[in-house]
Amino acid sequence: MLPTxxxxxxxxxxxxxxRWRSEFLGYFETDGASNGxxxxxxxxxxxxxxxxxxxxxxxxxxxxxxxxAGGLPIPNHAHP
Length: 80
Known about the structure:
- This protein is mainly α.
- 61% of the residues lie in helices and 0% in strands.
- The protein has helices at residues 8-19, 21-29, 36-51, 58-69.
- α3 (36-51) packs across α4.
- The longest helix is centred in the middle third of the chain and has 16 residues, at 36-51.
- The chain is elongated.
- The relative contact order is 0.07.
């Protein structure tokens, strides 16, 4: 058993694996589904929200969030 191993690092790994057992097994029970994409998008929005503290126009803030999230197409203007 890993938690009873005389090597401290291996014992600590065993304790961590035992503590997180249900989370690790949950990965396989849900076919690998996770909320990683949602968390990544939330991180991007929170970062931009910190930058946007001075926005007074709600529409401008909304457009900025859509642009960051990829929900707003950026026109491709070719300059000669």
